[in-house]
Design goal:
Number of helices: 3
Oligomer: single chain
Number of domains: 1
CATH topology: Lipocalin
Length: about 180
């Protein structure tokens, strides 16, 4: 019983811990054209480390519209190197804020049986839809995506600065190898 109380207390404290970003200042991006944004492939350029993506490189997300506020999401990466084994996870998604279209709820399917729900907020995007920065609603996880699988070092530096301006500790970002 004591161990259960300690574990519960630790979980509560972890939930209250600061993420490095001022959550009161963060909000989803301005209106997103869902047909333009949630269509095609985006390439992962930078991310906060997490066990799920350990060893993943050349990653990205492909969105396929299903009509209305529904989208199919397929996340992918390569194991170890851009030529490594392809790893994927995907599932149905729903735009949670129709009209603004910056909040997405994904129900990932593992082995077709297990559901892993995740919410993502687009915090900032390019006017020409060439890049975006997203986070989870707790503003702990952070991702930087571009339409170009290999953006220039100057472009990556610019996007890291934008993430830093949002309040993130960008020293925590990792930049996995990209594909071509």
């Amino acid at each position: 019983m004591r161990a259960l109380l300690i574990a519960s207390s630790l979980l509560i404290l972890a939930g209250c811990a600061s993420t490095g970003a001022s959550t009161s200042a963060l909000k989803p991006a301005a209106t997103i054209d869902a047909a333009r944004f949630y269509t095609g492939t985006w390439y992962e350029i930078g991310r906060r480390p997490m066990s799920l993506t350990d060893g993943c490189v050349a990653g990205g997300t492909t969105y396929t519209p299903r009509g209305g506020d529904k989208v199919t999401v397929l996340d992918f990466c390569r194991a170890g190197s851009p030529a490594g084994r392809l790893k994927t996870i995907g599932g149905p998604a729903r735009i949670m804020d129709p009209g603004t279209n910056a909040k997405l709820h994904v129900s990932y399917r593992v082995f077709g049986l297990f559901r892993i729900p995740r919410d993502y907020w687009v915090l900032e995007r390019a006017d020409d839809y060439s890049w975006f920065i997203s986070a989870d609603p707790r503003f702990h996880d952070l991702w930087i995506y571009t339409r170009d699988p290999q953006p220039s070092p100057a472009q990556v530096a610019k996007l890291v600065e934008r993430a830093k301006a949002l309040g993130y500790d960008t020293q925590l970002l990792e930049f996995p190898a990209t594909g071509s």
